[in-house]
Amino acid sequence: MGPTSPVDFILQPPVFHPVLPYITTIFGGLTHGKMVLVQGVVLAEAERFQVDFQCGCSLMPRPDIAVHFNPRFRSRPHVICNTLQNGRWLEETKFPHLPLKRGEAFQLLFLFWQDEVQVSVNGQHFLQYRSRLPLARVDTVGVFGDIMVKSLAFLRSNPFDASQTEYPVAHPMQLNSSKLAVPYCHPLPHGLASRDTITVRGLVCPVPEGFSLSLREDPSHVPLRLNTCFRTRALTWSSFPDEALSHAEKVAACFPFHPQRFFELLLVCEEGSFKLALNGIPLGQFDTPWVSWDRIAELWIEGDVTLYSVFS
């Protein structure tokens, strides 16, 4: 059975340009497959910074820290990972060859499993660290030190990739980008193919009427459209294989969108069908044998949303 309540779809919104030190609660704590994305710039004269995944946010006594990620930029730049338990640091693990440089932008992706975390730097896997505390206890993240943070985002991994054969790619979030202004056109010059994935991240406007995502061969031929209507509280997809035949179908039993709420929508192409997921939760697989993915030329988004990232 799929989710039946809008609460199941809540995804924590990203934070843009927080002032450091910055500490915030992780909604729902750390669960298997959750990702935390940190985008920023290392200061020109940086000595160190740290990202701590904590068990609480108290100041006294100091909370346990399941994962302490601490890049250091002195003579031989490296990263220290450690665990703080009952006020005492355990044996640290040192990772040399830090792929971060002073004065340069970076992107860190923390991918959490049952009892360990994988960290990529600028899209490349860097380290794997096994926590000596249960990650299920973690409910807080803190960022400190000599960096400027552009965004801090909380994401979920692709629910259709159970094997996780590929390292997740977390494209950067952008706030108030003119390139993502709505209505928005995302060109697909080579079309689409089976197993291709489109990911849209954004924020619903304060007083929305609705928004839609359309896969178009050209402006007059729209083989597939996903439509969100707040008046009827319905999420539907429709297809128009030719002028004489059209198809429309409701996607979810409950309406999963809310005003001023962050969302991440995944559309996965399959042979003769497509899959949908919202905020890491599968919505289903839908038959579209008449859609030729290789003829799709663009993704068109319009309506009452602010876009943070769109990629395919």
**What CATH architecture of the largest domain do you see?**
Sandwich
Rounded mean pLDDT score: 91
N-to-C series of helices and strands? EEEEEEEEEEEEEEEEEEEEEEEE
Low-confidence stretches: none
At the first level of CATH, the class of the largest domain is: Mainly Beta
Strand elements, count: 24
Put simply, the count of helices is 0
The major pleated sheet works out as: 7 strands, antiparallel
Which fold name fills CATH's third level, the topology of the largest domain? Jelly Rolls
C-alpha termini separation: 29 Å
Domains (count)? 2
Output the radius of gyration: 21 Å
Instruction: Give the overall shape, derived from the CA principal axes.
Output: elongated
User: Into which percent range does the helicity of residues fall?
Assistant: under 10%
Given the helix and strand composition, which structural class is it? mainly beta
Percent range for β-strand residues: over 45%
Word description of this protein:
- This is Galectin.
- Keywords: Lectin, Repeat.
- Pfam families: Gal-bind_lectin (PF00337).
- InterPro entries: ConA-like_dom_sf (IPR013320), Galectin-like (IPR044156), Galectin_CRD (IPR001079).
- One of its GO terms (molecular function) is lactose binding.
- This protein is an all-beta fold and 312 residues long.
- It folds into two domains: 139 residues, Jelly Rolls (Sandwich), CATH 2.60.120.200; 134 residues, Jelly Rolls.
- The chain is 0% helix and 50% strand.
- It contains no helices and 24 strands.
- Strands 2, 4, 5, 6, 7, 8 and 12 form a seven-stranded antiparallel beta sheet that branches. It has a six-stranded antiparallel beta sheet with strand order 1-13-3-9-10-11, with no helix packed on it. A six-stranded antiparallel beta sheet has the order 14-23-16-17-18-19, with no helix packed on it.
- Strand 10 and strand 11 form a beta hairpin.
- It starts with 14 loop residues before the first strand and ends with a strand.
